[in-house]
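so my prof wants the structure for this chain in the tokens format not the other one, which i didnt know existed until like an hour ago. anyway here's the sequence
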Amino acid sequence: RTCLEMGAWLSFSGIVTFANASALHDAARLCPAERMLAETDSPYLAPVPHRGSTNRPAFVTYVVAALAMLRDQPLDEVRAATVANACLAFPGVRP
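here's what i got, hopefully its the right format
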């Protein structure tokens, strides 16, 4: 809440797919869609179902899927929001 009140973006990595990350799950539900980003934290902390292996940028799809599930939103909606937000937060990024 404090970070959001300060105007920060919240970026979610593979950890959001871990069953024991309840505080992070709560943050994902709380975060407004327009302030949410998805990342992989490569080469570390690969998402489920690749936990324990080397993380890769392609695994961001698992992060977005977990966010959609936690937020009870359509996958395409969360994907579109995180891509749009990345373009805003990082000028020069193109989908």
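also thought this was worth mentioning. The CA atoms of residues 14 and 47 lie 4 Å apart.
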